Amino acid sequence: MSQDIFVLIEHLRGQVADISYIMLAAARTLASSSGGQVAAVLLGKDAQKLAGNLAADKVLYADSPALTEFTSEAYQLTLAKLIEEQSPRAVLFGHTTIGADVAGWLSGKLSLPLVSSCVNFTSDGKFLSQTCGGKIMAEGDLPSPTILVTMIPGGYKSEQGQAAQASAIESFTPPALDNLRVALKKYIEPEAGDVDISKSPFLIAVGRGIQNKDNLDLPNELAAAINGTVCASRPVVDQGWLPTSRLVGKSGKRVKPKIYLALGISGAPEHVEGINESDVIVAVNTDANAPIFNVAKYGTTLDLLDLVPQLTEKVKQAKGG
Ligand SMILES: Cc1cc2nc3c(=O)[nH]c(=O)nc-3n(C[C@H](O)[C@H](O)[C@H](O)COP(=O)(O)OP(=O)(O)OC[C@H]3O[C@@H](n4cnc5c(N)ncnc54)[C@H](O)[C@@H]3O)c2cc1C
After folding, report:
1. 261-309 per-position pLDDT tens digit
2. Cβ atoms of 257 and 279 closer than 8 Å
3. Is the CB of 306 within 6 Å of ligand 1?
4. d(CA 190, CA 206)
5. Phi/psi class of residue 311: alpha, beta or left (left: φ > 0; alpha: ψ in -120 to 50)?
6. Does the C-beta of 269 come closer than 6 Å to ligand 1?
7. Residue ranges per domain, the chain?
8. Contact 231, 259 (CB under 8 A)
9. May I ask the CATH class of domain 5-171?
10. Which of 115, 312, 120, 151 has the alpha carbon at shortest distance from 226?
């Protein structure tokens, strides 16, 4: 078994997914404790250009028409062959649709242990992972031989996994990928939203604490005064009070604004997953024990319905002055 740490690079439509960079940063910590190298595993067709800024010691690249787009079967077979041939110390996958699909299958097929929902690694090689939807953090040693890990964002910044210079590319041959039972028939672009919340530097996020649709006037007025954008947690979108394009979190968008003002949001892991790269999180929640305060830099337990109109007034006065 080698001591190398492999990272499956996720990419879609010619873009490397952020989670790949986050995993490369995590792999660096793990490689310093194992004494191995970080290897980015890139599967695709004419996709070498995606290797340009991966912070890895090497890129293991498989090129095949069957790997042009992600399909579970082609990825599973290719990775199974690579892992059997090279026996790395660990293979990191995003805790994403792709990662969960591939890592679960590989664990069963190759009888390898799997740690899921891992957030980070300690310098002595222990993992920290979320269980029970983030209410409990589990710490443990990584079992041998090769360990498969799915990772969620939160422990590392994506910039830490980006390099100015390209790493050396080592090609490897995938197995025969004909007669596959799974094929991509059509890629359907998601509907364009009214605004792109991931581009706004100031987000005013509303949660169930807003209580009803009419109360949305309050954050809307604040957003207009401060030139921000209103977004939401899932209950607000599920009620149809705001469109899905405004949803933040696991099933919505990941955002990185300068300021994220969370109004009446409890801070469930599925929501926090989408905001933990914000520069500053400010929480307004009447429950002092709400988990949102664990990730907020500033917070208050004032009632948002009292606070927001006053805040809007202050902003207007300041602008007038
Ligand atoms: C597979 C899966 C995917 C999911 N994906 C997402 C996702 O992408 N995004 C997402 O947001 N959720 C997602 N969820 C749901 C998530 O688990 C939570 O249920 C959701 O985030 C809770 O939303 P909330 O914080 O607005 O509501 P709640 O948890 O009900 O919190 C409301 C908060 O408002 C506070 N409050 C009430 N009144 C006031 C007031 N007047 N002033 C101030 N504070 C007040 C309360 O104290 C409370 O903390 C997902 C769940 C699953 C299982």
Report:
1. 999 999 988 899 899 889 999 999 999 999 999 899 999 999 999 999 9
2. yes
3. no
4. 23
5. alpha
6. no
7. 5-171, 197-320
8. no
9. alpha beta
10. 312
Q: Cβ distance 121 to 154 under 8 Å?
A: no
Enumerate the β-bridge partners of residue 44. 63
SS3 assignment, position 187:
coil
Q: pLDDT tens for residues 223-274?
A: 999 999 999 999 999 999 999 999 999 888 989 999 999 999 999 888 998 9
> Is 254's C-beta closer than 6 angstroms to any atom of ligand 1?
no
Residue 132 has pLDDT above 80, yes or no: no
Residue with tokens 């149809």: 240
Average pLDDT, the chain: 93
Q: Which of 208, 222, 307 to mutate to test the pocket of ligand 1 (most atoms within 8 A of CB)?
A: 208
Q: What is the 3-state secondary structure (H, E, C) of 209-243?
A: HHCCHHHHHHHHHHHHHHCCEEEECHHHHHCCCCC
Q: Match domain 197-320 to its CATH number in 2.40.160.20, 3.40.50.1220, 3.10.20.70, 3.30.70.260.
A: 3.40.50.1220
Concatenating the DSSP letter of every residue in 36-78 gives --EEEEEEESS-GGGGTTB-SSEEEEEE-GGGSS--HHHHHHH
Structure tokens at 149: 């890990």
Give the other-Cβ count within 10 Å of 35's Cβ. 10
Query: Same CATH fold, 197-320 and 5-171?
Result: yes
Q: Which residue has the tokens 């039972």?
A: 181
> Is the CB of residue 99 less than 8 Å from the CB of residue 118?
no
Atom of ligand 1 nearest to the CA of 303: 42
Query: Which one of 117, 214, 271 would you pick to mutate in the ligand 1 pocket, going by the greatest count of ligand atoms within 8 A of its CB?
Result: 271
